[in-house]
Amino acid sequence: MKQVKFRDRFTNKKPAVGTLYLTATHLIYVEYSAELRKETWILHHHIAAIEKPALTAAGCPLLIHCKNFRVAHFVIPRERDCHDVYSSLLRLSQPVSYKELYAFSYNPKQNETNRGGGWKAIDLKEEFQHMGVPNDYWEQTDANEGYEICNTYPTLLYVPRGVSKSLIMGSSKFRSRARFPVLSYFFKENNAAICRCSQPLSGFSARCVEDEQMLQAISKANPGSPFMYVVDTRPKLNAMANRAAGKGYENEDNYSNIRFQFIGIENIHVMRNSLQKLLEVCELKAPSMSDFLTGLENSGWLRHIKAVIDAGVFIAKAVAEENASVLVHCSDGWDRTAQVCSLAGLLLDSYYRTIHGFMVLIEKDWISIGHKFSQRCGHLEGDPKEVSPVFTQFIEGVWHLMEQFPCAFEFNEKYLLEIHDHVFSCQFGNFIGNCRKERQDIKIQEKTHSLWPFLLEKQHLYQNPLYKASVTNVVLKPNTAPFNFKFWCSMYNRFDKGMHPKQSVLDCLLTSMKCNVELKGSVEDLNQVRASVLSKVTELEKSNLTDIMRGLLIHIAMFFCVQKRIQPDGSQSDIACVLSKKLTIQEASSQLPVLDTLQESGHGQQSLLANGAIEVTEDIADGDKERKSVTDSSFFKIQPTNCDSVLELDTCAQTDGEDHPTSQDTVVDN
């Protein structure tokens, strides 16, 4: 469609005019102007909602809201064309099966070996070994082999050493969705652990001996602490309401040596409504300061972010400072539990604050353990009440930590935004599906590509210029006072260019880093050339050309040193004295500072011509202050000299007003 207008929400500029293309995977707008050809690509899977406001004199408006918070406002000349685009986008943005997702048709021209290798970029078994597991307290269990006990858990699970399969099965029957307690993170400095599960099916009075024994085993796996925390991330009222449905929370009377703690993170429905209110504030065209701040406060968004970070801080502090193990759960253990466990791990372990380590963290605490990405991100047509910005809150929580600790993270905010985009893009298979079993059933690894190698290839774009690896191996202790939380403009208004500075500090620093790397590379190249030259000189010294090279160096020294270094009283300078003896080639070259400082002295220039000849131009001040140029642009033909010193060579080689005689003991010029 031609003559389509593209409006900018935050400027009064004349709308751009261009052509709108609709492909199987993207909506593409091409703007034609005198200066450049600008393209805007919108992936169908990024589209969250489409509006078709009333017809105007300028044409038919089409408003597209995206999951990565882009808002595109088009004006299409003909109403019929606008309706066709509207209907097509509704269908393309809401696929009904996984096979319709972009990842199953995306082909980056990799062979099967590269595809398989990409999925092996992260090995969670190696990650647990990095933590120090298995050990005397924790071991791998095969209880869930074939997803026998819990179909939303992976097969690779770690439990306290000595726990039997029957005990695991008994505990799983007492937990919602059979999600029994498993190890999430082991803090090897003091043997404290972070475990996760779902809420117990306790109702008002039910209990389970196997579940009580499981928690006792977790507590005993940390001999350095007499108790363990059980953290319920829900508000207490919500947890109590679940008791009426036969669920609820642990009764401290039935579990020995536990300390119970409610955190108070709201459910997915509250979070979804909060984000919607925040986006309404972001889309205000010209809000006053009062309107913006009031809208931001009424959305409650930053308050929810603070609650999530507070929970992570509490867990990290319990592990690192109180030496206590922690068991975390919410309702089903795949939303709020994932948020706080991953944030706690990020605070405790500097490895997760690296580019590769952050991938491992997401794989371990989100993808593998069963966060319902496809439902929460709305990948397929389904119940809109299941959609919620759970992962978005985690990403923003990480950004707030980066703001407080700018030197502690290897990556920058571009890395967070890139990952957030691909959670919704469905271009790669990592985030498709709701659990590992579901991904296995639809053959994700066989039919799609992994995101992680794609990010690793571009990791130079995600480097934090302020990162200091040498000082980051500490537990982070963020300040969660309200004044430390702020609106993330680069996330929610990223595509509104009029709101951002023309030149960002991050871009300037990244450019400086790139130049620094290039300069270091040049220095390394020069060092290699220098080493090669020194090697050649050493070889020449050992060859039969030694005397010739010595004569050449002494001849150069005579021109650059002796003629210029005679003191007013007629005595020799230090350089002349140093060279008043026969030197080896290396000794002579090392004793010639005049060669290095020639340009600084302003008395001469030396250049190496293309044919290998040495050109020497000397400025000699005589009594009449006349300038004399001595140039020899041809090859010097040097023979071994019998002169015992530079001064003698000077006498042999120079005769005022006379030609140099040709002999075996003198320098011959052609």
UniProtKB/TrEMBL annotation:
One Pfam entry name: Myotub-related
GO cellular component, one term: nuclear envelope
GO MF annotation, one: phosphatidylinositol-3,5-bisphosphate phosphatase activity
Alphabetized SMART domains for the sequence: PTPc_motif
Annotated positions binding substrate: N267, I268, C330, S331, D332, G333, W334, D335, R336
Stored InterPro entries: MTMR8_PTP, Myotubularin, Myotubularin-like_Pase_dom, PH-GRAM_MTMR6-9, PH-like_dom_sf, Prot-tyrosine_phosphatase-like, Tyr_Pase_AS, Tyr_Pase_cat
Domain Myotubularin phosphatase residue range list: 118-492
Active site: C330 (phosphocysteine intermediate)
Keyword ATP-binding: no
Gene3D superfamilies on file: Pleckstrin-homology domain (PH domain)/Phosphotyrosine-binding domain (PTB)
Similarity section: Belongs to the protein-tyrosine phosphatase family. Non-receptor class myotubularin subfamily.
Protein name: Myotubularin related protein 8
Organism, as annotated: Callorhinchus milii (Ghost shark)
